[in-house]
Amino acid sequence: RVFNFLRNINLQQGLAPFVVMVGQGSVSQNNAHMAAYDCGACSGRHGGPNARAFAAMANRPAIRAVLKNRGLSIPDDTWFLGAEHNTCDESITWYDTEQIPAALQPAFDQLRSDVFYGCLGSAHERCRRLMSAPQNASLPQSLAHIAGRATDYSQARPELGHMNHAAA
């Protein structure tokens, strides 16, 4: 599965120190359409467990040996990470971070900071479309507003505005 996936997305060379598999999920208190907002490929469930399982497989030395025999060599200094993006409140759950090699920990700290900044920007962009959002909100104010929608029972569609996610 690891070989086929990496081949299908043409990620067979030039791997970065981290390859992050991010599943999508959503947690909110008042969402009449909750299953529709979770991963459709997973029958209305969160995608984080799949990302976590893939990363665990790709990090196993035995799997990497099989991949190498099939012509796909993953550098020793490349680490696969699983994560889940909560598209309602813009939070990221990182899986198995205690297994990250010590030499990669500073790079992970930077990656986590960069991803958090991306979540701030996403929240800010979403707020531009929401009448309930404060005018000219700062990035932290935007994130607070977006996160607050997840527990606001007056919000029938707390994830409104998340439909422009497109990154690889």
Strand segment tally: 3
What share of residues are in beta strands? 5-15%
What's the rounded overall pLDDT mean?
87
Tell me about the biggest sheet? 3 strands, mixed
- Percent of residues in helices comes to 25-40%
Structural class: alpha+beta
Shape: elongated
Rg over C-alpha atoms, rounded to the nearest angstrom: 18 Å
Order of helices and strands: HEHHHEEHH
Strand order of the largest sheet: 1-2-3
Number of helices: 6
Poorly predicted ranges: none
Distance between the termini: 20 Å
Commentary on this structure:
This protein has 168 residues and is α+β, with helices and mostly antiparallel strands. The chain has six helices and three strands, in the order H-E-H-H-H-E-E-H-H. It has helices at residues 2-8, 34-37, 48-59, 61-69, 105-127, 139-149; strands at residues 18-25, 79-86, 91-95. It has a three-stranded mixed beta sheet with strand order 1-2-3. The radius of gyration is 18 Å and the shape is elongated.
Summarize the structure.
With 168 residues, the protein is of the alpha+beta class. The chain has helices at residues 2-8, 34-37, 48-59, 61-69, 105-127, 139-149; strands at residues 18-25, 79-86, 91-95. Strands 1-2-3 form a three-stranded mixed sheet.
